[in-house]
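[audit] Reproducing an earlier prediction to check determinism. Same input, same settings, fresh worker. If the tokens differ from the archived copy the diff job will pick it up downstream; this log only records the rerun itself.
[audit] input (356 residues):
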Amino acid sequence: MAAAVFYDGLAAKPRPVALRFAADAVEILEGETVAARWAYPDIKRLPVEAARLRVRSLGAPELARLEVEDEALAAELLRRSPQAEAGITTDRRTIARIVGWSLAAAASIVLTTIYLLPLAANQLAPLVPAALERRLGEAVDNQVRVLFDGKACDGGPGAAALGKLVATLTSRVELPLAAEVRVLDTAIGNALALPGGRIYLLDGLLRRAESPDEIAGILAHELGHVARRDALRRLIQAGGSSFLLGLLFGDITGGGTLILLGRTLVDSSYSREAETDADRFAADLMVALGRSPQPMGALLVRITGTQRDMPLPFLASHPVSEARLDALKARESPATGPPLLTEEEWRALKSICKAG
């Protein structure tokens, strides 16, 4: 008996084993247990570097492998399986064809991930029933609450002011799903739209805001995501990109990192387009209400800075904030409509998460 490594063809885990040569077959042992028994006539050698013998059995699962590095053990196994060497020679032309088809397959997966998945997501999202999207949104909502570790602030005059603001904004647009806006008690300055129409305004953003129009612009932006069902599109795309990039890189050391990087690049590119469209939606809505969209851009820059010195700007899911501000300034118009909130309502909204 001598040491070898066995792959059973069902799991990728290598299993240290010992070999015992019987009269008609090699027995693969794990301790005292016979894990497999390969008849000598069924054994075929597989191409691999000369320092290692790798064989398979015609009677075993397709992906089952036995690897032997000990030269004496390998020689004994080949002596008992003389037919194992048949067909082992692979000419350069065959190798070139294998490499060529492998590269073509990898390129097709990459191109599908970058170009076809966004198109597929755009086509599939409108076909998903609203009830199903809401159920998906509930699952995502649970994760968001855990991620931000915040409770919803939904009582008192602040909630009434928020309801008034949302009602004013939604009165001018048609949405595929009813929008539900909540404030989360967290210091993070952000807002996000989930599948199913739920929008979270994080209290850190309210604390930094200086006027109702700034918050109205942010909410209008998130309503743009709801109108286009962007969260559902991204969910479809992320699932597809994970599958395809996992298929390409496989379960190898570092594969998870490659998949994560690939998804970051692909998803961020898709997000930039969605964010730009949502900005345009917000600007149109604010102008329709007789309010300027410029305050939204001012709040963005106050929160994020200009981001001109970002070392890898193509990794950012949102467009550079100063560029967004410039686009919103281009839509600036005099405020001809009535204020969206009174001073008292604005103070109530600002303090919606304060105790008491």
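[audit] rerun output stored. Observation attached for the diff report: The chain has two domains: 3-85, 122-350.
[audit] end
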